[in-house]
Every structure is written in C-alpha cells, then in structure tokens.
Amino acid sequence: MISADDLVALVQSYNQNTNAKLIRDAYAYGGEMHEGQLRHSGEPYFTHPIEVAALLTEQKLDDATIITALLHDTIEDTKSTYSEVEARFGVEIAELVDGVTKLTNLQLSSSETKQAENFRKLFMAMSKDLRVILVKLADRLHNMRTIKHMRPEKQVQKSRETMDIYAPLAGRMGMHWMREELEDLAFRVLNPDARASIIRRFITLQKETGNLVPKITNDIKAELTKAGISGEVFGRAKKPHSIWRKMEEKKQGFSRLSDIYGFRVIVETEDDCYRVLGAIHGRWRSVPGRFKDYISQPKSNGYRSIHTTVSGRDGKRVEIQIRTQAMNEVAETGVAAHWSYKDGERVENPFAVDPATWVSSVNEGFGQADDYDEFLEHVKLEMYQDQVFCFTPKGDVVKLPRGATPLDFAYAIHTRIGHSCVGAKVDGLRVPLWTRLRNGQSVDIITAEGQKPQPTWMDIAVTGRAKTAIRKSLREEHRDRFIKLGRELVRVAFDHVGKKATDKALATAAKELSMSDADQVLEFVGSTELSARDVVAAIYPDLLEQKGETEIEAKRSVVGLPKGVAVKRAACCQPVPGERIVGIKHKGDGVWVHAIACEVLVDFDEEPDRWVDLQWHEGRHAANNPVTLNMTIGNEFGVLGRICTLIGEQKANISDLHFIDRKPDYFRILVDVEVRDAEHLHGVMTGIEADTDVASLERHRDLDRKP
C-alpha cells in the first residue's frame, strides 16, 4: 500500500507547491473512516482510494482532485458526512466528493428508461465540475484491474457497464489510453475465448515474422534522420479488444487484418508534423481513405494529431500518428489537461480545452430531446461515433458523426433548413438524401417552401439532433390524432387489469415515466413510441404477468452477518431490500438492521465496534418486509375497501391498520404493508397514489420505536 509520504512525493514530482499537509490529513482521515472495511480480495478497503489517487497523479492533476480520490467513498460507505468533509477540507473538496458519491449511486446499466434518466444526471454532474468524472473514471479503472475478486455475475455486469458507458466516455474526453485499457479489461471478462484467441494468433504471427515493432520504429527514425527532423518514435501492437473490434467492423479474420501495429512520432513544431508526413509518404505508399488531419480540424476535446496508414515493411499496414509534444500531452490526458500541473504551476497548454466549452459541445442539442430514447440517441452518438468534417458552400465546417447524411447536415445548420430540405448536392453533384458523407466533401442543401419532414426521414437521419427535430415535427402534425388513439389504447389496457384510466391515474403515470402530463403519455402511446402496457406497468407493475423466480429465504436475506448471529429489522426505519443498510450489535439480542440514513444511528457514533457492514442478498425476496404507510383518504363508501384490494392486487399483504384521525370528509390511517423490496414498495405506493380518493401518501417512520 502506498504511504502518505509516497503519495505526497508523487504529487510533488510535478507540483512542488502542493499542500502536502492537506493531502496527509485526507490520507489519515480516509484511513480512519474506512478502518475495518475490506475489499473482496481481503485487502484493507482504503487501498482502493489510495490507488485511485495514485492513478490521478499520473495525469498531474491538482490537489483537490487527488484529495477527492482519497475521500471519494467516505460519504457513501462510512459514517462521514458532507458537513464533516466540508469543515475539514473546504467546500470545493466536499462538493467534489459529494458529486462522486451521487455518480456512484447511479445504476447506469439498468433499464433503458432509467439508464437515460441517469445519463442526464451524469452529464449534469459533468457540467458542474468535470473533475468528478475524472475521479469516477480512475475509480472504475482500478476496480476493473481488480475485478477478478468479484462474483462472476457482478464481473459481467460491471464489465458491460464499462464497455457501454465508461470506456466510450473516457475516449470522448480524449483519454484514449484509459479507454483502451477499460475496453480490454472488460473484454477479458465478456469474451475471454475471443481475447485468448487473438493473443494466441498474435504470438504465432510474431514467431513467423519476428517482432516488427522495433524494426518499423527504426525504419521511421531513419527517414526522420534523412529529412533532418528531430523527434521521438514510439511503437506498439494494438490491444486485443481494438483488434477484435476491427475484425468485427471489417468482417475479416485475423490473418487478413493488417493494421494491428500503431506508431507515434513526437516532434517539436507543427511544421515538423507536416514534414514528417511528407517523409513517410515519400518512403511508403499511403492507404487511400486512411488519412485524417486533426491539426487543421481538431476534435472538440482539444485532440490534435495527423493520422495516416501506410503499407510498411513486408507490406504490413501500420497506423502512424504525428504530433508535437504539447499536442501529445493533451492527447494523453484529454480534457483533464486543463487541470494539469508542471513545475508547480498550472500548465498553459494552448491545446487544452476549457471544460465548460467541452461539456457545452457534448450537451449541445440534448435539451431538445423530448423523451429518454431521444436523449440516449444523442449521448450514444456523441460518445461512440467518430467524426467527419464537411463544408458549406461558403466554406464553413460542419462536424458530423461518421455515416451521417445530407439530411443530418441540413439539420446541423438549422432546424428550419432541415425541415424544408428537398435535396442536396455533394461536390456539385445531385445525390439522394440517404448518401453517406465523407471527410472534406462540400454539401449544398436544396430547400423549398411548404416542405415538411416525411416519416421516411427517420430511417435516413443518423444524428440525434436530426431525429429529434423530425420526430417532434411529425408528432406535432398528428398530435390530436395520436392523443385520441392513445386514450383508447390505454383504456383497453387498464380494463384488462380491472382498472380505470382516470385523469389522476394518467397524471401519476406521467410522473412515473418522467413526462410532462397525461396528454404527452397518450400522445406517445398513440404514436407507438410507448406501449399501453408500459403505462399500466408504471402504476400497477404487479398486476402484469411476471416470470417465476426463486425467492430468497428470510434467513438468507442479509449478507455479512457474523456466523451464528441472529438478525432483526429495526422498527424505527423499517429497512427493505434495495435500500443501503448497516447492522448494529446488541448484546444478547443479535444484530439489528438499520437503513443507512436512519437518524437513530447517531446514538451509536461513539461505539464503532458495534457497527457491522451488511448488504442485502441479490435476487427476489419474499414479500415479508413490513413498511408502514401514512395516508389520507376520502371518507366515502367503499374507499378503504378499494385501497385494501389495490394493495392485495399488487401482491402485497396488509398486516395491520390504525385510524389516527377521523373527520367527516377524510380519514388518516397507518397501514402496515409487507413488501418484497424497495421497488415493490414503490409500485405499491404509486398504485395507491393513482386512486382519485387518496389525498396524500407517505412512508411513516417512528423513531421512538427503537430496538
């Protein structure tokens, strides 16, 4: 484990003006808070925050980011609080730690709707302070490096999340080394046979041809010397996942895949970059269509470099990147270069992008998205797609994802231009709207008054911005018809489960589906963008058919108990599976389980030896977890019976009921309901809240009912 002095030394190697005392204080505080906690490997838990901090020193980041890494799990996993972190380390660090905590709580690999909602939160966190994401990426990288100690199913879940979200995000931020490592670590879990096969083939290739990397490196150095150019040359074989992706994209076997080697040339000036390009193309034949000049057309994250692929030694294709040292520093750390230090001062790298500008470019157009699918289209296109650069007739540059069409180009200029588009000319020739654009082409959009978006355009457009605008226009044109059709479809779906599609029920569904109102729900149903079944499921999930799943026995519901110790749920907070929990030992009475936010836990702050780190067993729990609901309902004939029936229909059991206030027009009652987990409880409460005679509903917690 890296000591506090070693960590300080790492920071001082690039920032002599670091606040060494504050870093040591954070190291000591983090160690104290995580005392007694272990990782899956059996190591002390605090080794993880230390390694995350060390990873961030490699990017030469500021003190606040390093300290945040040391403390990033304290608010989440210990008795530490935001207020305490703020008092000890200041508002900036407290805000960063809180931001990482909120990101940790996002379930990014969940269902599409939740995933989109959490993506919004992720990008909101990025817009406040990008360093939150830098810490989270380093956190994920260290967890992936040590993933073998997790359960197999958890390894798959985390690897899929890494491949789908964190690796592309790292790449989008310009941290390509991290993207490659994250992808390869996830690839090792998700497709170990394919990875092993590529490594075996690579070893065989090296036996047949020898190690080509040093040979080609020397060839490039020789050309630089001939041209009188001073520079450094680095070469390597590409990562197994990178090779696998090329095989999948090109539908080629390993033996036919050529550009599996990558080389980088670092020179002093921008002019030298183009001189190197000339020398390389003069020595080897360039591969058509494989040249990109990101120096004259930099990426939005500040990335600048020349890319070219040539047929090198023995006809092997090799990719060569050419850049200056300043460009290389940004290429290595991406947007993080904004915070980099050198010789005790913030680096003034002319190519480092202002984080606010970068986040703005990523978020551009997201606000136009009307629903979650549209938002995900924007996010995934922004993170996954490479870019092409095309020109307007006036010479302005328009950046688009690879595979974009003239229709995408039209909407990128202005929504009005897109709506009125009737055709396009590319490099002076009339082309169909579905033509795929290539780098450097000039595009002239032909418009006509009275033209409106056509439904077929949804299949032509590629960008989220274009699809959003087209969908919105089509929806507005047919809105009334969609609402009328949606109302009928929803009525039938509700009748099927014995319920009425009342205005309040639809308003509740809109709230659950994060839509603006009932009309939007009906409109989406009528336009087939949302199923009527989904609307029913939003309020009455347990009325729909569910696949059978073995329930977890009550005695196995909690993981982490000392052997032979009895467990009981605290009556004060009534924790249920799905909520974060902690155990408190009671002499002669086993361990009592509390929700992590239970106010009663304050009473045990001075007795850390009584705390037990617990978690719920993963899987489907039996509906035997009691929760008390406080509700106000109308004092009318049949209302109480209807509420009780509704709870039963949701597969929940009423174990007790108390009237706490009776008035001529309403009752206030406490109902003890037994549920499976937090999600089941949410479904029960949503179904109750949708009833027109329920005025208010909340979860009741009795802090006087202490164990």
Plain-language structure description:
The structure is a single chain. This protein is α+β, with helices and mostly antiparallel strands and 707 residues long. The protein is 46% helix and 17% strand. It contains 28 helices and 25 strands. The strands form eight sheets. Strands 1, 2, 3, 4, 5 and 6 form a six-stranded mixed β-sheet that branches. A four-stranded mixed β-sheet has the order 16-18-17-19, with no helix packed on it. Strands 23-24-22-25 form a four-stranded antiparallel β-sheet. α3 (47-57) runs antiparallel to α4 (63-71), α23 (479-496) crosses α26 and α24 crosses α26 (532-539). It is globular and about 95 Å long. The mean pLDDT is 82.
How many β strands by DSSP?
A: 25
What is the CA-atom radius of gyration, in angstroms? 30 Å
Mean pLDDT: 82
Report helical residue fraction.
Answer: 40-55%
Q: Helical stretch count?
A: 28
Q: Biggest sheet, open or closed, and with what strands and sense?
A: 6 strands, mixed
Quaternary organisation of the protein chains: single chain
Shape: globular
Structural descriptors:
single chain; 707 residues; alpha+beta; 4-stranded mixed β-sheet
Short description:
This protein is of the alpha+beta class. 46% of the residues lie in helices and 17% in strands. The strands form 8 sheets. Strands 1, 2, 3, 4, 5 and 6 form a 6-stranded mixed sheet that branches. A 4-stranded mixed sheet has the order 16-18-17-19, with no helix packed on it.
